[in-house]
Structures are given as C-alpha cells and as structure tokens.
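cron nightly-structures :: item 1 of 1
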Amino acid sequence: MCEIIEKLQKESAAEAALKKTMEIALDILREGQTVTFASIVTKLSVETITQLAIDNNIAYTM
C-alpha cells in the first residue's frame, strides 16, 4: 500500500513540476521571446511550446 501512495505522490510532483515549467514557457512567450529561447530555458520541446502558444492564443516566432 505504501508503494502505491509513494508512486502517486511522485506522479503528482512530476505533474506539478511540468505545469510550472509550462507556465514559465508561457511567461517567456508573453514577454516576446522566441519559441526556441523558451525551449532552451525550459527544456521543453519546440513542438510542445508551439502548441502552448497556439492553445493560449499567443503570437510567437521561432
């Protein structure tokens, strides 16, 4: 039972970290930086950041 709880806690922490990283990427894009720059800073893929920009109606450049 403890293993299941530990696994869920780790998954929850990973999801929270990814959400925070995506928020940072969005902030970078909102500041007018490029998708490439956001990718370098956050370590997210260019494709992921491009999709974030599209989903959040943020104009972007590569």
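cron nightly-structures :: done
The chain is about 75% helix and 0% strand.
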